[in-house]
Amino acid sequence: MPDLKKVQTCDLSGKALLWAVELVDGPVPAAVGQLQLPLGDQAIDDATGEHLIQKHGMWIERGYSWPWLACVSGHPLDRQPGDTRAEAAARAVVHHARGETVRVPKELCQ
Fold first, then answer.
1. Residue 42, by phi and psi: left (phi above 0), alpha (psi -120 to 50) or beta?
2. How far apart are CA 51 and CA 54, in angstroms?
3. What burial class does residue 54 get, using C-beta atoms within 10 Å of its C-beta: 0-12 exposed, 13-18 middle, 19+ buried?
4. Res 36: pLDDT
5. pLDDT value at position 42?
């Protein structure tokens, strides 16, 4: 069992965010013509973000203190920030399923 660390959902990024999304939503679909590998060098990119937005029918828009805000539940207090549209969408999916904090493997935390 990997050593886990508690992380605020709004602080998840990189491989830790991808791991949390895959924990909640299953493997992220690979781009057309790309071999599907677990985690690897994958990141939450624009295509992944759009997939999550469409799948969960989430609210997403530009923010003021953050570039993007996203929410799956529709409740204003559940909005999750992100530097990119895809990052905000991924955090919103994880927050909706797991709440304010998530336990992720320490080696994925930067």
1. beta
2. 5
3. exposed
4. 54
5. 59
Q: How far apart are CA 19 and CA 17, in angstroms?
A: 5
- Tell me the three state secondary structure of residue 40: coil
Closest alpha carbon to 83 in 14, 22, 4, 5: 14
- Predicted pLDDT of residue 70: 96
Residues in the chain: 110
Q: pLDDT exceeding 90 applies to what percent of the chain?
A: 64
**Terminal CA-CA length for the chain:** 20
Q: Determine contact, residues 19/94, Cβ cutoff 8 Å.
A: no
Paired tokens of 34: 């790309």
> pLDDT by residue (tens digit) across 26-64?
887 666 655 555 544 556 888 889 999 999 999 999 989
Say if residues 80 and 70 touch (Cβ distance below 8 Å).
yes
